Amino acid sequence: MNPLSSADTTDETAEAPADEAVETVEVDERRQAVVDQFTELLGDAVVQSHIRPGDDVWIRVTRDAWATTADVARNRLGFTFFDFLSAMDWLPSPFGRDMDAQEDTSGAVAVDDADASPGEADADAGPVALETGYAGGDTRFQLLARVYDVRNHIGVTFRADLPDDDLAAPTWSTTYLGADWHEREVREMFGINFIGHPHMVNLYLPGEFEGYPLRKDFPLLARRVKPWPGIVDVEQMPTDGDEDAGDLRCRRRCRRQ
């Protein structure tokens, strides 16, 4: 029999040194119970979830379970108040962001590159890192919807990934009537169709309008024709040593009046 060394006989249950900080994880039992309920009822359709203790909860589900999620939320778990339904396009604009930032789909302009033009990519910078927020996301287009349980004062934001080549999802309007106009707006602005919607027509744009204004690849030509508000020559404030300082202050007061 080999004798045991002191390392072998160390008590694993011994307390950690007092100077070692112990990380504590805050647990929100109410919101965790909500996530557990949806996971039990939806099963593998729950892709990911995130809880911000004492504040809110996010649940990402599969597109195939999008309509089922609405039914479970309203008719089985008591989330009867519909807040909103919308979408997001996570892809950076292929045109860059013009005067707003210097980035595009392939990379970002180096900060110290004074000769780089707005929107021009740095080939060595690599792809732009995108963070899709709570509960993650794997596709360019994502649906979002939020509902509340008014009795227990708790809300949930749902998300679902949509494939680029099939921008469609089941309608929520048959479960939450308030989703009707929201889905029409999403189709009009993002080109996402809602299967089973009773009246999918435009809310804002003329019927012959081409394109989807809230997609990142929709060119905002107005920004190219006229500078975006705020990007103008700014008149410097005068100092007491300026000869015409008094006149300039007077002119500014007159403009405000």
Written overview of the protein:
The protein has a domain at 29-90 and 130-226: Beta Polymerase, domain 2. Residues 4-13, 99-125 and 248-257 have low confidence and may be disordered. The longest helix is centred in the N-terminal third of the chain and has 14 residues, at 29-42. With 257 residues, it is of the alpha/beta class. The strands form 2 sheets. The protein has a 5-stranded mixed β-sheet. A two-stranded parallel ribbon has the order 6-7. It is globular, with a radius of gyration of 27 Å. It has 5 helices and 7 strands, in the order αββαββββαβαα. The chain is 21% helix and 18% strand.
In N-to-C order, the SSE pattern is HEEHEEEEHEHH
Class of secondary structure makeup: alpha/beta
Q: Approximately how much beta-strand content do the residues carry?
A: 15-25%
Total of helices: 5
**What's the arrangement of strands in the largest beta sheet?**
1-2-5-4-3
CATH classification, class level of the domain at 29-90 and 130-226: Alpha Beta
Instruction: Pick out the low-confidence regions.
Output: 4-13, 99-125, 248-257
Rg from alpha-carbon coordinates? 27 Å
Q: Between the first and last Cα atoms, what is the distance in angstroms?
A: 98 Å
- Summarize the main sheet: 5 strands, mixed
Query: What do the pLDDT scores average to?
Result: 77
By CATH, the topology of the domain at 29-90 and 130-226 is: Beta Polymerase, domain 2
Count of distinct strands: 7
Question: Which of globular, elongated, flat, extended, rod-shaped describes the shape?
Answer: globular
Query: CATH H-level name of the domain at 29-90 and 130-226... which superfamily?
Result: NADH:ubiquinone oxidoreductase Nqo5 subunit
Give helix % range: 10-25%
